[in-house]
Write a structure and sequence with these properties.
Blueprint lengths: L1 H12 L5 H26 L14 H6 L1
Length: about 60
């Protein structure tokens, strides 16, 4: 979610119009989210994403049942 929010903010602030500009914004937003995840893992001493917390069935499908 952080990557999506970062990308949206960057794209809107820069008033991107074409694919190449949006691609650059997406890469920067993804880097922000990736750096945040790495920093959290360093501080907490554990992994953010692991086999234990991986959802095999998406929550949306679970709610429909």
């Amino acid at each position: 979610m952080l990557g999506e929010a970062s990308t949206t903010k960057i794209a809107r602030d820069r008033n991107t119009k074409v694919f190449v500009e949006n691609k650059i914004a997406a890469k920067k937003g993804g880097k922000i989210a990736g750096d945040a995840r790495k920093n959290l893992e360093l501080e907490s001493g554990g992994k953010v994403a692991s086999k234990e917390n991986y959802l095999t069935t998406p929550e949306k499908q679970k709610r429909l049942k």
